[in-house]
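TODO from last week: model Acyl-coenzyme A oxidase.
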Amino acid sequence: MSSSQDLVKCSFNTDDMGQLLYKENYHKWIKVQELIAKDPILQNNVADYGQSRDKLYEIYCKKAYKLHKLLNYSDEMIPGMVNSQFPETVVTVLHQTMFIPTIKYLGTEKQIEKWIPPSQNYEIVGCYAQTELGHGSDVQSLETTAVYDKGTEEFILNSPTISSTKWWIGDLGLTATHAVTHAQLFINGKHYGVQTFIVQVRDTHTHLPLKGIEVGDVGPKYGYNTKDNGYLRMNNVRIPREQMLMRYSKVSKAGEFIKAQNEKIGYATMMQVRTSIIYNTYVSLAQGLAIGVKYSHFRRQFKDKNGIERPIIDYQTQQDKLIPLVADCYAQGFGCLRIRDILTENLKRITEKNDFSLMGDLHALLCCCKAVYTWNTHFGLDKIRQSLGGHGFLQSSGVVSIQTEFAPSCTYEGENTVLLLQTGRYLLKACNKAQKHQTINENVEYLYNIQQTLSQKATFTRAEQLLCPEIIRKLMRLHAAFYVNKMMLKMMEKAGEHGPKEAWNKHVGVSITEASIAHTYYWTFKTFLDTLIKVQDENIRSVLSNLCCLYGLQRIIDWPIGYFEGGFLNGEQLEIILNAKEHIFTLIKPDLLGLVESFKFNDNALRSDLVDAKPYEKLLQSAKLSSVNNEEYQNKLRSLTRQLREMPKL
């Protein structure tokens, strides 16, 4: 692509920026892409587009087999890196990202010793069976039952209702031999809540379902064509007592239930999974932007006064579609790096000291970031697709597959609205603590002296002042405090009128989600700012500062009502913000190609005809390879169209 001259103008070294984005995983990221691009089984093939679902599943089974031979899947970063390289989801990824971690976190040393080696060797393939037809987010209302039989020292698992059918379980429909299964535990008729069990669903030699097991695929979906999301029903399925994961909660041979000291430990696997999802919001948006920005430098439309066609990236409207998303992508990337650090520290405290003190803060952060980041990436990818014009609608653009594969992220492993409500509950508690001068996490320090905070106003008078991230940080801090305070006041009012539960469910939900979103925006901006302050390279720090400012200004422009309702901004200042945003476009544009080159995707990973050196020739070549253009199909089609033409006329 003829963008090398534009890349020369870049003010910073893209390798150095890439190392900032991927940290210790930078060289691993490059190596994984190179390995996949060189392998004839793994490399992407345009001929795979339009294949039937069963054929795609076969193709990706072969890819999965080759990947497991070549890569160390015990490295928790590998599954996320690998998945981004293909237009469809790799088979068995949930085996590594959910099945194995659940056993590691919730299993005893003896259980880990028994189950992890065969799992890592793929003697068994697992999945994570929590969601049911009738309940997803409401885990405590799951209906699958596990009744302990003291006489045989077994659990008897059943799906007593249609709505108790396990549903949407990835890798279950066709692949898995075992399932980490969540069920309501009963001992001698007494209920002990949801516990976690390992259930074998298929024979490891014949791959046939075991006695009492009904299992299958849920059918065609919006995307995820290679992912065998499955259903599971159980009828008096017996498993040994030792197949309840018992690191924390336990059932003795005699049927005595020993409760976990901290029931939140059951959430440990989901924390890691949500961190992976948040990482994927960065990777998926980065992929889309690499395609959109590169093609926008190549594509020319409409002549200037000298008769020369302009690259479409020169038009402000195209910049407005793409440049704010580049800022979002960097913000989410740095947010994910910070979350990973907190997750690592949390798991270290739990395993080494049985210290759960970070769980609540991390849970709230994961919930709101998963919700806000997945929504932002989902809608951002569609904006990128539209920025490509008609070509963006082609599978061979590369963006379509990224978009459809990403779309379920807004729902799975926590429906976004429900997650925002959970963060809102945390914010309410933090607000109450702050009012009582109790200690709260640094992420919500803005809740101290909240009334004094809300009396402040923006004082800037010129666009140049908004090139200082600290000024924008203070504004966004006011915005977060305003929405949390608004939520708290409304909750107090409606709880007094209707009681806390009805107030929460029927009257305050929108205010709660607004507070959680405002909190997420502020935390993300602050994390971005904290990151760039530590950068030693002056050129990188300068461009990141511009991106950070743009991220904050775009949040204000997209959602200004709170700034006006709180009295923090006036109309004249909003106009200054709009002018500052346009000015930042001019500062970022010379570095735009460098910013997406820093994502370090090779051509195989982007799988887009639009980033080829000759995109128009590549598009035509791909079209000719379409299965409907082959001679066999054309001959069949001629017969059908002839019948159509020979139909009796009215």
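Done. The domain at 124-261 is CATH 2.40.110.10 (Butyryl-CoA Dehydrogenase, subunit A; domain 2).
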